Amino acid sequence: MTRLIDSTPRRDGFRMPGESEPHAGTWMLWPERPDNWRDGARPAQQAFVAVASAISQFEPVTVGVNQRQFDHARASLPPQVRVVEISSNDAWVRDTGPTFVVNGRGEIRGVDWRFNAWGGLHGGLYFPWDLDERVAQKVLEIEDADHYAAPLVMEGGAIHVDGEGTLFTTGECLLNPNRNPQLSKADIERLLAEYLAVERFVWLDKGIFQDETNGHIDNICAPVRPGVVALAWTDDRNDPQYEISKDAFERLSAATDARGRRLEVVRIHIPAPVLITAEEAAGVDRTRDTLPRKAGDRLAASYVNYYVCNGGVIVPTFDDPQDRPALNTLAKLYPDRRVVGVPAREILLGGGNIHCITQQQPAK
Ligand code: KQY
């Protein structure tokens, strides 16, 4: 079983590895709620199958599924993907799963953050979130890994680390009063330092325009390797994203990481604005307790929401002229990995993308 450890990872010699370090595998969850995913979630399920299939070329994949969808998920996913029953409110394991930490001596543990569905009753995306709250513990139970309970409302998509002591995040999310109103920025840094074993914080102001997570870092900026980051970008000064990305570029260029390096910032252009069509909006069930989907609303489309796995980089594509340049740039940034594009509009329609629906389990 997973035991609760009354200490912190840093005190015990554990740290969160960078995503590019070797993985034991990847966790995902199965989408099904018809008030977030259109047409009874069937198009989203096909997109998730494409993502799981792509990753499973490189490393083991496990998909957690609610009981009533188990047979359907099992039949839809390829045989090399492990399917286990895990109840959840939705399918964002980046945010509801554990953050794994390792000690370099063959041991792995999980950090279980508090979760409030991206803002609780003040701008959160759905209610209730009681099943999501328990996903991390269930994953760790299956893996027989002990866990820490971090006293911080936090989602995995709100942070990125370089594995060498640097953490990237945004004030829009982690300083938002709908997460930890009782904590100061210094309190939040202290908790992140204890639970992830990091010492340098690079704060961007905002994430991608209209990102419903309150600007998760994993949609705007990703560490490629220590000292190098990818940043979502646009040259269109009329796009509200322009000022956000320009400010992020300036902050990143002025920052030094935990090893004292200046960062190289590689810009990856976002696609043309992706808007919800009338047909797509009509396919989502309306309910009282879920963020509604409205025709014409702009989605937070970005190639930076890619996922790095053993030997591969899985990149969202949008059927846009920027797809090819983004894939080419990432192929140059990751010369030892195969870059695989996966059509991701259906995932984006649910409010996130490939990085948000995956969670790496590092090798011990
Ligand atoms: O992008 C994410 N990390 C989660 C998005 C949640 C969207 C719920 N509609």
Number of helices: 11
Average pLDDT taken over every residue: 97
Identify every distinct bound molecule in the structure, by name, code or SMILES: 6-aminohexanamide
CATH topology: L-arginine/glycine Amidinotransferase, Chain A
Percent range of helical residues = 10-25%
Please tally the β strands and state the result: 18
Described by strand count, sense and barrel closure, the largest sheet is: 4 strands, mixed
What structural category arises from helix and sheet content?
A: alpha/beta
Stretches with pLDDT under 50, minimum 5 residues: none
Question: What characteristics describe this protein?
Answer:
three-stranded mixed β-sheet, alpha/beta, four-stranded mixed β-sheet, 18 strands, single chain, binds 6-aminohexanamide, 364 residues, 24% strand, L-arginine/glycine Amidinotransferase, Chain A
